[in-house]
Design brief:
There is one protein chain. The protein has about 80 residues and is mainly α. It has 1 helix and no strands. The longest helix is centred in the middle third of the chain and has 83 residues.
Amino acid sequence: MQLLRKQERSLKTSEGRLENMLQRVNQQVAKNEERKSEIESLRRDRLQREEVIRKLQDELAEATQKARMGQQAQAAAAAEREAAA
């Protein structure tokens, strides 16, 4: 009988430890899910920022090209005026 009680206590102790470990594992899994969600959100934000930057760079390149064309047209007009004078 005494051996049986000892084994029961040992079993209960082991079950308690297992329950505690499972709780810690579940808490860690929940934290990992939160972090995963945060990472995905940050990735989406980064992709949006990269898209905005790309569009701004395209607009800047287009505006720069238009400005150069305007300068060339002004230079050509000035050259024509000088030649006509």
